[in-house]
Each structure stands twice: as C-alpha cells, then as structure tokens.
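HUMAN: Mind sharing a backbone?

ASSISTANT:
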Amino acid sequence: MKAFFIRTLLILVSVVLLVQLWIFSSLVWWRTQPVQSTMMMRLDYWAEPSKPIQHQWRDYDQLSDNLKRAVVTAEDGKFMQHHGFDWEGIQTALERNKDEGKVVAGGSTISQQLAKNLFLYNKRSFLRKGQEVVATWMMERMWSKQRILEVYLNSVEFGDNIYGAEAAAQHYFGKSAKSLSRDQAIFLAAILTNPKYFQEHRNAGALKARKQMVQRYMRYAEIP
C-alpha cells in the first residue's frame, strides 16, 4: 500500500513538472515567434472540426492603437502598473460575488486571461486557477508588457471561432486590424465579455453600456 502511494505521488509530481516545463518552453519559444494556435482555439476546433478557426497573426505595429487602448480600458485598466495580478480588482470581484451569492466577476487581468487562453480551458476550478497563476507569474517575468498585449490581441476570442484582432476586423468590418477606427475598436473591446452572444445581439443593453464605459475612459488608457 505504501509503495503504491509513493508511486502514485511520484507520477502526479512528474505530470505537474512536465506541464510546467511545457508552459515554460512554450513561453520561451513565443517570446519571438508568432502564436498560431492556443488551447482555446484547439478546444473550439476539436468540438467542431468541420468549422475552421479564423485567425491571422499581426505584429504589434500592425494593430490599431485605438484597439490597444480600447481593450486595455475594457479588460484591464491597470495593465501597465501590475505584475500580472490586480489585487484590488480581485478583492472587488470577491466582494461582488459574495453580495450576489454567485460568481459574477473574476477580476482577471489581461495577463491571466492570456495564460488561460494559451494553456488552459474555460471551466472554473481550483486546479485551473492555480495553474493560471503559475503560468501568469512565468509570463510576466519572461515577456514584456508589449509582448503580452501583442499576443493577447492576436489570440483572444472575438466571436464564434473568431480569434485575434485581424480576423475580427475582417469579419465585422471588412478591413485590417491596423485601420480600425475609434468606434470600431470600442465595439470589439466591448464584446470581449461575451463575444459569441454579442456577435448575434449587437443591440443588447449590456453591450451598449460597455461601449459607453470604454468610450468614456479610453483616453486615459496606458499602452506599451
């Protein structure tokens, strides 16, 4: 019994270490190489292989500054100040969840969301959250803020099988991600909270409120 327990423990430790090595080596490679596929993209493809993933990588200078500012405003206003975790935001989210009696806010930063998109999955669990923390910690120490934002804008979901700013700009507006206007950037940033829903419900009240918030505070956003 003792030998079985030790073997099981060693296997579990080995798996955990292998996962960390995979994440570390991926982050090293992606410091300079385009990210062409993420775990979220793969999960979408595996769920429906007949439906192609829409995604085209674009370098940082090929992405509209309007979109950068709008997304930082919508998703992580303290992006340039924190080191991966917005502790005040997390505390606020916990208090909101306690008041509502359910999870209504996550408090995740752009870095945390990117770690999840690259390596993990959407289903909430302590295991996933713990791995997200580790991956975020590594990313913030290996990548610059510019690289984090660049990869995030190239890999975040903007609709059904639509990933990254270029695919989103082409799908919604028939133009490149570099030429997005202020209003178009605000729309794309606003739908990130629930992209598949807002893709089909563009007049939803929640989306209008989100767009108004981004429009009001966008000029204050700091970007790399």
